[in-house]
Amino acid sequence: xxxxxxxxxxxxxxxxxxxxxxxxxxxxxxxxxxxxxTKNQLINSLNGFLDQKEKPNKQNAFVLKEDLLATSLLLxxxxxxxxxxxLKDEHFYKPYLQNVVSLGNDDFLVQVNYSGFKAxxxxxxxxxxxxxxxxxxxxxxxxxxxxxxxxxxxxxxxxITFHFKDTLNIAGxxxxxxxxxxxxSKLKAPGMPVEEYYCDNFIEAQQIFxxxxxxxxxxxxxxxxxxxxxxTLLVVNGWNSYQxxxxxxxxxxxxxxxxxxxxxxxxxxxxxxxxxxxxSWEVYSWADIITMFKKYAADNPNADWLTLYxxxxxxxxxxxxxxxxxxxxxxxxxxxxxxxxxxFAPVMELLTCGKLEKGDANLFKALEKVSGITKANFNSEVxxxxxx
Length: 388
Description:
Layout: H1 5-18, E1 25-26, H2 36-51, H3 68-78, E2 94-104, E3 107-118, E4 121-135, E5 138-142, H4 145-148, E6 153-157, E7 160-164, H5 170-187, E8 194-198, H6 202-208, E9 211-214, E10 223-229, E11 232-238, H7 248-259, H8 267-278, H9 286-299, H10 305-310, H11 326-342, H12 345-351, H13 361-371, H14 378-387
Parallel strand pairs: 1-2, 7-8, 8-11
Antiparallel strand pairs: 2-3, 3-4, 4-5, 4-9, 6-7, 10-11
Helix pairs in contact: 1-2, 5-7, 7-8, 8-11, 12-13
């Protein structure tokens, strides 16, 4: 692909901006391309890529567009890298060029670290590995995900393509696809294609797409990371084990956020839906949760549910070690009632009534509209739900 005049101008502006901002720090010991033109093009392009990382990913002019999806996952992890929230320093961590490796044909692997010094001690916040491809008079950058998984196997079930090294738990994969389909049908979500990479653990999940280390994930063995671009969802799955690759509770939250902005989601209602449809903590089904909640109600016959809901949202009622919240269980009962009587559309009104606020005025306004439940009759209505 030939470089356009607009791209050249963008590159020059990015290079100029870097001279005033967080330009890449390069140690004299780093082995750079011997050809000075190639070296300058690579460094200028990399500075441009880093300068634009806070933009929406598809607007970064230095991303190899055919690898936007995986590179978006990497860019999401790079956003805000310079900041140290505890020290309130917007530029505490500096970008260092750690390594440059020629792969032939003017392609390179580059490693960038973000580090700072606290009380004279170096602190590494993150390390990223990127591939650089020369096209025209500059370089474009992309995630090494495809290269690192080129010999993996694949299997498609519904709209989900599973990527795995050796063996796929077919029953588990089908259950995952079935649960995704169940949630999406409620949310009226489009059948977005999913690329799911099954890794042995969260360390491998990070490394296959170019995140070599991140301070925030230090010591974390199991987790997932996901991104969606161009109507495709990418998930690198480093969760738990061969048998259990996802949590039905957490999956509800993930699917909801694909169709609704987090800025309008009411968390207690969201958690109530997750209880109802996905249980909690991988060990409690909704049947378990409601059994324990009814026992709590029986043991507390004078409970004031309105006070417990509005003023004691962190009140726990579970008998085991895993906490279960009264406000979430009440919302699950309300959602169950509303959906049974009127369908899921009114539930979406509750879910999107706005973030949690003191006194829950936004929630009670929506709640009265869709169910007739108000603050005045809240206590008696919850007792009715518990007795049904």
